[in-house]
Amino acid sequence: MKIIDAHLGDRLCQTQQAQVGTSTAPAATRAKGKGQELTAEELDEQLNKLKEQELRYKAMRQALCDRLIMMKPLRQEPRPVQ
Predict the structure, then answer these.
(1) In this predicted structure, what is the pLDDT of residue 82?
(2) What pLDDT, on the 0 to 100 scale, is given for residue 35?
(3) Strands 27-28 and 37-38
(4) Residues whose CB is less than 8 angstroms from the CB of residue 63 and which lie 6 or more positions away in sequence, other chains included
(5) What is the pLDDT of residues 18-29, one digit of tens each?
(6) Among the four 14, 28, 42, 76, which has the fewest Cβ within 10 Å?
(7) Do 11 and 53 contact (CB within 8 A), yes or no?
(8) Burial class (CB in 10 A: 0-12, 13-18, 19+), 81
């Protein structure tokens, strides 16, 4: 669970940085071809992919939380002594 949270945090930071720096000038990237610059369209595509991935991680995290809740036994109120 901590790994997913950390990964989500990293992706959120990347998404925010990409949104701040969206200009018409090409930007350098750490993609496969080091030193290549991306156009605004390619940056938008990467941003969309990151947003989709973030949504998938959030859904996966929620599913894990739901399963954890289902696995925990419900607390039963103590029966009154007669």
Answers:
(1) 67
(2) 65
(3) antiparallel
(4) none
(5) 666 555 455 555
(6) 76
(7) yes
(8) exposed
> Could you tell me how many residues make up the chain?
82
pLDDT confidence bin for 58, thresholds 50/70/90: very high
How far from 78 is each of 6, 15, 72, 75, 81, CA to CA, in Å?
40, 50, 18, 9, 9
**CA 28 from centre of chain:** 23
- Report the distance separating Cα 31 and Cα 38, nearest Å: 9
Give the containing element (helix H, strand E) for 27. Answer: strand 27-28
Beta bridge partner(s), residue 48: none
80 vs 82: CA distance, rounded Å: 6
The answer to whether 40 and 23 are in contact (CB under 8 A) is yes
Q: How far apart are CA 6 and CA 62, in angstroms?
A: 15
